[in-house]
């Protein structure tokens, strides 16, 4: 439970950081940190905790973007499901696989957001000149994917070590040899 709460706070900080940097840096140079936090949640957290964190991170991304309310939340839930299902089939311990998954997941996210906007708004025009920007953003997301997943795994290890130390304390009424 603590890992889920801590990871939710880290993901929220990532969303705020990304929104703050987007005002001064073009968005296609920034990785999608809520997507990466969702990906890490699928790999590190238990299923119900991961789903809850993914949904809340998606709602946080909806608040700072101009997208429809719930659009990112829906995509984050679907992306969590994809990563969780693939984690049973593919070993995500190597950084190359994590980077490729981050790259592919951002392209999938972009197409999904486009499809949802087209579905709810009717005519939503796709601008072909922005395709290069999406590829750059997918590349930046792929580069940062191993770092974010590594951070989530490190936090999980630190919390499990503290819990193990706490559980190993023996309190007896008589002296033990």
Task: Give a written overview of the molecule.
The model has no long low-confidence stretch (mean pLDDT 86). This protein has helices spanning 2-22, 33-44, 47-64, 71-87, 95-121, 131-167. It is elongated, with a radius of gyration of 19 Å. Helix 1 packs parallel to helix 3 (47-64), helix 2 packs parallel to helix 6 and helix 3 (47-64) runs antiparallel to helix 4. The two termini are 36 Å apart. The chain contains six helices and no strands. With 177 residues, the protein is mainly α. 29% of the residues are buried.
Keywords:
177 residues, mainly alpha, 75% helix, elongated
The arrangement of helices and strands along the chain is: HHHHHH
Helix content: over 70%
Number of strands: 0
Q: Biggest β-sheet, characterized?
A: none
Task: Compute the separation of the termini in Å.
Answer: 36 Å
Radius of gyration, Cα only, in angstroms? 19 Å
Q: What average pLDDT do the residues reach?
A: 86
Could you say which structural class the secondary elements and strand pairing correspond to?
Answer: mainly alpha
- Uncertain runs are none
Strand portion: under 5%
Counted by DSSP, the helix tally is 6
Overall geometric form: elongated
């Amino acid at each position: 439970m603590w890992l889920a709460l801590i990871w939710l706070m880290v993901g929220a900080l990532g969303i705020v950081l990304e929104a703050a940097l987007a005002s001064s840096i073009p968005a296609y140079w920034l990785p999608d940190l809520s997507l990466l936090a969702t990906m890490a949640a699928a790999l590190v957290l238990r299923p119900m905790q991961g789903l809850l964190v993914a949904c809340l991170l998606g709602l946080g991304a909806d608040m700072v973007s101009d997208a429809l309310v719930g659009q990112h939340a829906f995509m984050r839930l679907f992306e969590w499901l994809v990563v969780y299902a693939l984690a049973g089939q593919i070993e995500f311990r190597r950084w190359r696989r994590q980077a490729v998954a981050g790259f592919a997941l951002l392209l999938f996210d972009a197409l999904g957001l486009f499809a949802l906007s087209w579905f709810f708004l009717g005519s939503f025009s796709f601008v072909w000149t922005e395709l290069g920007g999406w590829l750059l953003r997918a590349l930046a997301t792929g580069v940062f994917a191993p770092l974010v997943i590594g951070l989530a795994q490190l936090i999980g290890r630190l919390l499990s070590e503290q819990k193990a130390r706490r559980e190993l304390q023996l309190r007896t009424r008589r002296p033990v040899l």
